[in-house]
Design brief:
Keywords: Membrane, Transmembrane, Transmembrane helix. By secondary structure, the protein is mainly α. The protein has nine helices and no strands. The termini are far apart.
């Protein structure tokens, strides 16, 4: 990724580490959780620096190796007794605050668009309204969990709507990636996620954001 200013990469590295920090806090500062997350992003960093993900004409697409393991992990967490015990111990208040990371993520995506690394539709000037989730998260955290002035219905609705915004941009991002099933942005595909450190977006940041919503929804429906 030539000519890309280093501050964009640094900003995204810090955003990823902040996401991990929030989840580490939500998990009661579990060292095991921290080690697993750091080991996963380190592995993906090493793989991506070899240019492995820049080969986009293979079947199945190599890009799937970034997203399938986290999704399988989420499925295991929600469908095993140990997994359920783990997610039930997570602090929903911290998971709600975690969503503030979506603000710097959207700013980084906009910068990447300016340098022709992602399509406009993946930014807040296009079809991506996910920044609203990040902006609203501190208010939901404060009024919902600190002041306890928001009902469970409101909290549930916020999580469902924001998860919808997340899934919306995920669909556009995946279908804009230069792989055999690409459907959008042929003039400027989503190439940033094929390179370090932006591989951490689909393999770490997005899965943790998704998991945070799913855990919150589970607890709100359960209690």
């Amino acid at each position: 990724m030539e000519n890309l200013p280093s501050y964009i990469c640094i900003a995204f590295v810090l955003t990823t580490l902040l996401t991990i920090f929030f989840f580490y806090e939500a998990a009661g500062r579990s060292k095991t959780t921290l080690i697993v997350l750091l080991a996963w992003i380190t592995l993906q960093a090493l793989i991506s620096t070899t240019g492995f993900y820049t080969v986009t004409d293979s079947l199945p697409p190599r890009f799937l190796l970034l997203v399938i393991p986290p999704l399988l992990t989420i499925l295991v967490l929600f469908n095993t007794s140990q997994g359920k015990d783990f997610i039930d111990r997570l602090d929903v208040k911290v998971l709600t605050l975690l969503h503030v990371v979506r603000i710097p993520v959207e700013i980084v995506l906009f910068c990447l668009f300016l340098y022709k690394q992602v399509p406009e539709l993946m930014t807040f000037e296009g079809r991506n309204l996910d920044i609203l989730s990040g902006i609203s998260a501190p208010f939901i955290y404060y009024y919902g969990y600190v002041k306890q002035k928001l009902s469970q219905t409101v909290l549930l609705a916020w999580n469902i709507i924001c998860m919808g915004l997340l899934l919306n941009i995920v669909v556009y991002a995946v279908l804009s990636t230069p792989v055999p099933f690409q459907q959008f942005a042929f003039d400027q595909p989503n190439v940033a996620v094929l390179y370090f450190p932006f591989v951490w977006l689909p393999c770490c940041v997005v899965p943790l954001v998704l998991l945070s919503h799913l855990v919150s929804i589970r607890k709100l429906l359960k209690y």
